[in-house]
């Protein structure tokens, strides 16, 4: 019976991972959320093979407690960890327009959400993963963390978010290098451009949306087959196909839901 931990599982892509995985009754899915009482979309799934656990992904102690609960349920093992938790202030900052205080605060916040959280989560569940059969860790990153795409498309917005996700890619590479001899597979996985508005807590600012919409013409030029944002469900199905087929020899890769560098 394969076991999965999904962080950031209350909405969006994380929720879609839990939903897709739990359709198979042979899977046990541990959904990590900050607050169970507000995870209404998740609790509405009401499947016996979903276990909801509370832990802020930036809180190492809380994640260790969650790992202990998973260990009790599985007999000390875990097969897959999907580090999906993360966030963005959606301020649309660039490198040059904020004050020094604003950019420092924004950078530190994004590193905590998108980089440090994955380190804490991986370390918390690593002892269980070492005893699992799959030994796979997928960290959900972003196409905005790709240097070539940034330069080719001229994307200046989401400065702190992009930097923190680029750092996450290096985190994946470091774990992959260290744990490859033990048969681990690590992936920095781009989900594509996904419309998560149906389960969002609040709508992004008009400025942020205008900046994102301005990227679409460049995206369509760079990726001629791009037809617009996809659903979380479509993205997750493609991501899981990549996760399940990825091999140890390619551990540490930075790829999209297509399994290559095609982002959109």
From TrEMBL:
<protein>
    <recommendedName>
        <fullName>NAD(P)-binding protein</fullName>
    </recommendedName>
</protein>
<dbReference type="InterPro" id="IPR052184">
    <property type="entry name" value="SDR_enzymes"/>
</dbReference>
<dbReference type="InterPro" id="IPR020904">
    <property type="entry name" value="Sc_DH/Rdtase_CS"/>
</dbReference>
<keyword id="KW-0521">NADP</keyword>
<dbReference type="Pfam" id="PF00106">
    <property type="entry name" value="adh_short"/>
</dbReference>
<dbReference type="InterPro" id="IPR002347">
    <property type="entry name" value="SDR_fam"/>
</dbReference>
<dbReference type="InterPro" id="IPR036291">
    <property type="entry name" value="NAD(P)-bd_dom_sf"/>
</dbReference>
<dbReference type="GO" id="GO:0016616">
    <property type="term" value="F:oxidoreductase activity, acting on the CH-OH group of donors, NAD or NADP as acceptor"/>
</dbReference>
């Amino acid at each position: 019976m394969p076991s999965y931990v999904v962080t950031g599982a209350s909405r969006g892509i994380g929720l879609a991972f839990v939903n897709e995985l739990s359709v198979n009754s042979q899977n046990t899915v541990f959904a990590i959320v900050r607050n169970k009482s507000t995870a209404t979309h998740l609790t509405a799934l009401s499947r016996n093979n979903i276990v909801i656990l509370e832990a802020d992904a930036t809180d190492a102690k809380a994640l260790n407690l969650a790992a202990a609960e998973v260990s009790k349920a599985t007999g000390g093992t875990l097969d897959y960890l999907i580090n999906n938790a993360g966030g963005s202030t959606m301020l649309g900052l660039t490198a040059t327009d904020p004050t020094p205080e604003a950019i420092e605060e924004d950078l530190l916040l994004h590193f905590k959400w998108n980089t440090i959280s994955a380190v804490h989560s991986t370390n918390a569940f690593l002892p269980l993963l070492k005893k699992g059969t799959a030994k796979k860790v997928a960290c959900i990153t972003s196409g905005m963390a790709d240097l070539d795409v940034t330069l080719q498309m001229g994307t200046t917005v989401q400065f702190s978010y992009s930097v923190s996700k680029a750092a996450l890619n290096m985190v994946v590479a470091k774990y992959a290098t260290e744990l490859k001899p033990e048969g681990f597979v690590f992936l920095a996985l781009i989900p594509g451009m996904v419309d998560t508005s149906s389960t969002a807590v609040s709508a992004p600012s008009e400025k942020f949306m205008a900046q994102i919409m301005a990227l679409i013409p460049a995206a369509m030029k760079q990726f001629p087959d791009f037809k617009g944002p996809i659903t979380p469900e479509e993205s997750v199905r493609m991501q899981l196909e990549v996760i399940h087929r990825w091999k140890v020899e390619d551990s540490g890769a930075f790829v999209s839901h297509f399994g290559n560098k095609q982002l959109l």
